[in-house]
Amino acid sequence: MISYGIDRLLAEPELRRPLHGRRLALLGHAASLSASGQHSLDALMALPDLDLVAAFGPQHGMRGDKQDNMVETPDERDPRHGIPVYSLYGEARYPTARMLESFDVLLVDLQDVGTRIYTYITTLAYLIEACARHGKALWVLDRPNPAGRPIEGSILEPGWESFVGAGALIMRHGLTLGELARWFAARGGHDLELEVVEMQGYRPEQGPGFGWPLHQRPWVNPSPNAASLNMARCYPGTVMLEGTTLSEGRGTTTPLELVGAPDLNFNRILARMEALCPAWTRGALLRPCWFEPTFHKHQGARCAGVQIHTDQAGYDHGAFRPYRLIALLFKALRLESPDYPLWRHFAYEYEHERLAIDLICGGPLLREWVDDPAATPADLERRLSADEHAWREQIEPLLIYP
What we know:
By secondary structure, the chain is an alpha/beta fold. It has helices at residues 5-11, 13-16, 40-45, 97-100, 119-134, 177-188, 229-238, 266-276, 322-336, 356-361, 365-371, 377-395; strands at 23-28, 51-57, 76-77, 84-87, 105-109, 137-141, 152-155, 170-172, 194-197, 258-261, 285-291, 303-309.
């Protein structure tokens, strides 16, 4: 059985001893739960030997109540405990001096999904930098990466940092939040008390969960549209749909597991994908489907599309490469319909000038490859393979779990 960092901190008094007499704050969200299903904030407040005086909420809030991107959460007081809950996705996204003055040690208990653009990663990076600057300690209560150990995609290019790209990370990073914290601290040269309360029994290479403890722990949405393990596995590819005019399934019950539009023939697109690069379509079931979003893109329109299924017996964790899959879908669409208005122009995560697809991908590489009629899958493969090899070498010394 697996024990998360929060479970160990609650169960092992010796682990808590260095926290005695210090003012604590918790960064958490809706999926910050103990093994018993109790929210981490409530569980920590019940411990008589700890002094929890404040809390922080990332995007979507401490209780996970905000649906879409760029929907801010205000500072508030926790209705049960009366302590201040500071928002890091509101008037401030970087912690202020006033926020930092409220605690001595920040406990971080966030469920990540294993993809660079998930904003909880950026919030963690900002807090590591701020805590180092202000002499604060940061403890990560580690949790599984549901996308597992595979790495994929391109590394964020210099100058493309944003709230969905906190540094030179690869798209599917393969790390737990504790391992990521170690990477941020090492990469930034930050000198601070950084502790990772490690999990016990975490086996990211072991099926059938490959990073997620199936049949041991429930899936609780870490953000409103992260509705399943299937979503987390697809997300390193399907998140790129947010930068396009294609629906990513928002407004349905399976967001970020779908792709579709009302004016495209996905049977033709799938056939062209198979002809272009069959290896990039492997590992998961690609099911042609129809859906009608109740809100967001193509609201009320019947969309033809494809749903990606990793939740079936034929799933191959090593062969499934969602970044390449969605990149190939874009390329096939562009070849089928060269003038299709694929790239969406809108404000994305507080960026108003640069294209959303470039922010998501950490540079223009993917978009330029899609739009170049002469560029082939082999061309993209060369770049991705080089970045994946470089990332694997970077993270090897930081890995905690076998």
